Amino acid sequence: MSAETTNPEAKLTAKEFVTDQDVRWCPGCGDYSILKQVQSVMPEIGIKREDIVFISGIGCSSRFPYYMETFGLHGIHGRAAAISSGLKAVRPELSVWMVTGDGDCLSIGGNHFIHLLRRNFDIKVLLFNNEIYGLTKGQYSPASPLGKVTKSTPMGSVDHPFNPLALALGADGTFIARSMDRDPKHLREILMRANKHRGTALVEIYQNCNVFNDGAFEVFTEKSSKKMETLFVEQGKPLIFGENADKGIKLDGFKPVIVDLANGASANDLWIHDETDAVKASILVRFFDKADKPGHLPRPFGIFYTEDRFTYEDALSAQVNEAMAKGADLDALLRGKNTWTI
Amino acid sequence: METIEKKSAKNAEVKDAQSVVILFAGDSGDGIQLTGSQFTNTAALLGNDISTFPNFPAEIRAPQGTLAGVSGFQLHFGSVNVYTAGDVCDVLVVMNAAALKANLKSLKKAGTIIANSDGFDPKNLDLAKYPKGVNPLTDGSLEGYRVITMDVTKLTRLCLADSGMGTKDIDRSKNMFVLGFIYWMYNRDLNFTIEFLKEQFKKKPELIDANTKVLKAGYSFGDTTETPMTRYNVKSAPMEKGTYRNIMGNQAAALGLIAAANKSGLKIFYGTYPITPASDILHELSKYKNFGVKTFQAEDEIAGITSAIGASFGGALGITASSGPGIALKGEAIGLAVMLELPLVIINVQRGGPSTGLPTKTEQADLFQALYGRNGECPAVVVAANSPSDCFTMAYEACRIAVEHMIPVFLLTDGYIANGSEPWRFPNAADLKPIKVEFAKAGAEKFLPYKRDEKLSRPWAIPGTKGLEHRIGGIEKQNETGNISYDPENHEFMVKLRQEKVDRIANYIPEVKVEQGKEKGKLLVLGWGSTYGSIKTAVRDSLAAGIDVSQAHVKYMNPLPKNLGAILKNFDKVLIPEMNMGQFATVVRDRFMIDAIRLNKVQGMPFTAEEIISKIKELAK
Q1: pLDDT digits over A277-295, tens only?
Q2: What kind of fold does domain B2-233 have according to CATH?
Q3: Residue A104: its chain B contacts at CB < 8 A?
Q4: d(CA A86, CA B342)
Q5: Residues of chain B contacting A5 with CB distance shorter than 8 Å
Q6: What mean pLDDT is predicted for residues B25-37?
């Protein structure tokens, strides 16, 4: 325990969320940057350290709880969502953060993931997506693109990948966002917003695995292509991207089209981002074409969709509290309705 | 053979009977289970000892009239103590031809058949696969039995002719006619069922009247029939003094969990996925939210248990339940709980396996699964209930051990006792064994999540406690600190330590007793789980016949009671009847080098006492 924590008034620092354990990710792994951002966001969210819990499954990213000086549980493959749900059901006041990867969350844990989203437990889900299995040393994941050559797919993957955010939206997720390891400022903003959301907050984080899938997201992170290939959406603002912010997206019916602002298109005609619009969100999550496809749309980052919906734990607690108000008598329960005496 | 058609004179003689076994059988839509449970409760209220066994098909509504659709409810009640639902029945009540065909083998010689003649029309006979033109009620094939036929459908319709109800609705009351008649036969009061009907149809008063009327008509039918009939009095049984209720095993298990939570000051989190025959525990618990119970119907078996683990981490009493196939899916998570060293109760209401097996039938073949069914050296505590009401005691014990020792505990029951019922001399809440739980608090020293007490139990440090921030997980860890460790010696040390932690629980459980017979002798019949009633009856009757035989029954399967080895060595032979291929016998041989004699039955049905008696006789020669 650091000395500062004994003074309840003192605001914690990022350092106080660092454990004494050696971080064992590969040098250069995108996880380091995410860990750093999460540790620096924690003192800002106004929640006591002892009320924060990090829960993970299995995979490189799932080592995360060991590095956070909070309560933590490193579970089993794919089950972090279910473990978190049980904890949140009995301790709604805790701030529960689930850390998972694309294999853990979308493959072995896919079932728990969709059910977590529809139930809307107030859990923050950090989905580290590196489009590869890292800990098992380099097999393709359900997020790997078609044709991906990996150890288990020497002739290229024939497995059509998930679009994680479309999946989440389809499962009635109430907070759907994307960020990346290489943009700490953006990641930090999204984490702050995720924390404020009451309900399941999914943050997909593009994370580079420099050992088994280096450069998977470089078109989005490298200076030379980032501006053309990414689209940072902000509430109430038009969808603009491009080298000199000279490209925009407008809706032609339900079809998004790229327009050239430098060549006469008006900014007034552009799609204005509204994160509460489920229809627009369903189009936005489909901006998912690979960068080598001609005429493809840029990949959006930011908050795609938010919705204010009751959480499972609140509804459950309300029922239990209502029933408890009526009182409970163990003797009466044991006795039942019909007895006889000998 | 007698056929009753007219109703006029009172001509029934009344006899005393010690115990009677009735088997109600009909289509699964005939209300058989309800009829059986009504008679059960009425008999129990009159002080009979009682044991029941519902036997139903896996299909909710199998095709009407077919052999596959036959649902049965067997009940054994007596003025003497009864421990099983009975080997063979004295009275077989059949609503149709298929019910007769499927159950005639269970009827004793010269037993009574009460048949609904309407269920023996050509269509029903054909569905029951009787050859064309053959009707067992009229062809003389039932010569050796006493057959009472009545057209229940016609009589019920007559009774409700001016009720204004439709035929379909009227026919739903058929079971009440039969029940009324059986009440007459055994001289029972109708009040309990009438009260039940009032409660059941609170919102539909017309159904209270209709069903009550049919029930009374069934009773009067007996009273006014002119054919010679025998009525039986079954007096109350010599039960221990006290106040009783009737209880089913799954219901008892649910109450045991609630009682344990209540006594320990914890709240239940019950994470589960529906599966036969365990779902009734979920149904029962979900009614008792007023005790702070949170039930969670998860998306699958794995989420059921892992959510319970998450809840236990948060300081709740995490419980999950399933049957064999579901337990198989939970295996990895049980291993996690063993590593995390958190309290967790895992209930397995066993059914016939493997795979989907026999979902609605009973078996004890998941003992190995509970003891060994995980990867790695992964010992868990295992306890087993031996009767419907014992499900309460052992559910309570499972919770006590789980929270006091910070360990996952299996509770094994099975379809027979889960759905069976018996009278229960329920305890006072104040008399239940206290359960001590203390959450860790921050001290002056650095908190060590895996520091142990004399039980080798670690502190339960729940989130929200300042100064106790720590991380736990399924990876091998260093003792005390809980830090990840791949050190070879440490792993072996931890493996042995987790085993020792289980072994030490033997100091905190009761010893096993020789319940019947001498402490030392020629033959011990050793059992575990739901075979208790059959073994108890078999040993009682063998002792009465002058055979030197003793009985002991194990409820704590891992660790085993400390004195078990010593008891076994006091007998020349040990016989272990099991509804599996000899799993406990294998454990006994492994632990004590005693090659017990096996008596195995794997038919989805409990042992009859007679099956055990004949083995005892064979061994006593």
Answers
A1: 999 999 999 999 999 999 9
A2: Pyruvate-ferredoxin Oxidoreductase; domain 3 (3.40.920)
A3: none
A4: 14
A5: 466-467
A6: 87
A11 to chain B, closest Cα gap in Å: 15
Shortest alpha-carbon distance between residue A301 and chain B (Å): 31
Where do you find CATH 3.40.50.920 in chain B? Answer: 514-620
> B514-620 — its CATH code?
3.40.50.920
Contact residues on chain A for B473, CB-CB shorter than 8 A? 65-66, 72-75
Q: Beta strands A340-341 and B597-600: pairing type? A: unpaired
Q: What angle, rounded to 10 degrees, do the helices at B191-200 and B205-224 form?
A: 160
Can you tell me whether residue B610 is helix, strand or coil? helix
Percentages helix, strand, coil for chain B (3-state, rounded to 5) are: 40, 25, 40
- Closest partner residue to B429 (CB to CB) among A72, A82, A330 is A330
Quote the CA–CA distance of B338 and A145 in Å, as a whole number: 38
CA geometry: angle at B212 spanning B210 and B217, to 5°? 95
> Closest chain B residue to A21 measured between Cα atoms?
B483
Question: Pairing state of beta strands A299-306 and B344-350?
Answer: unpaired
* Residue of B284, B290, B425 for testing the chain A interface, max A β-carbons within 10 Å: B290
Indicate whether A2 pLDDT > 50. no
Q: Are A86 and B310 in contact (CB under 8 A)?
A: yes
* Alpha-carbon distance A139 to nearest alpha carbon in chain B (angstroms): 22
- Which residue among A74, A86, A323 places its CB closest to the CB of B296? A86
**Parallel, antiparallel, or unpaired for β B19-27 and A230-232?**
unpaired
Chain A hits for B474, CB-CB cut-off 8 Å, are 74-76
Q: Does domain B245-431 have CATH number 3.40.50.970?
A: yes
What sign for the dihedral angle of Cα A246, A247, A249, A252?
positive
Q: Return the H-helix or E-strand segment holding B620.
A: helix B609-620
pLDDT reading at B621 higher than 90: no
Contact yes or no for B294 and A316 at CB 8 A: yes
Residue B51 amino acid letter: S
Report the alpha-carbon distance of residue B123 to residue B177 in Å, rounded.
23
Mean pLDDT of B231-241: 90
Give yes or no for B469 touching A (CB within 8 A).
yes
Percentages of chain A per state (helix, strand, coil), in multiples of 5: 35, 20, 45
CATH 3.40.50.970 in chain B: give the residue spans: 245-431
Q: Name the strand (E) or helix (H) holding B270.
A: strand B268-272
**Phi then psi dihedrals of residue B87, to 5 deg:** -75, -50
CA dihedral B578, B582, B588, B594 (to 10 degrees): 110
* Residues pairing with A258 in the sheet: A249
User: Which residue out of A25, A35, A90 would a mutagenesis test of the B interface target, given it has the greatest number of B Cβ atoms within 10 Å?
Assistant: A90
End-to-end CA distance of chain B: 42
**B393 vs chain A: nearest CA distance in angstroms?**
12
Bridge partner residues of A299 (DSSP): A230
- Which among A73, A83, A324 is the nearest to B307, CB-wise? A83
pLDDT value of position B10: 55
pLDDT category at A8 given cuts 50, 70, 90 is: low
Domains annotated for chain A, with CATH where assigned, are: 3-216+310-320 (3.40.50.970)
pLDDT score at B27: 87
pLDDT tens column, A63-108:
999 999 999 999 999 999 999 999 999 999 999 999 999 999 999 9
For chain A, where are the alpha helices, taking DSSP H only?
A: 30-41, 80-90, 102-103, 110-119, 164-170, 184-196, 218-221, 223-229, 278-284, 312-324, 330-335
Q: How far is B36 from chain A (nearest CA, A)?
A: 16
B471–A333 CB contact, under 8 Å: no
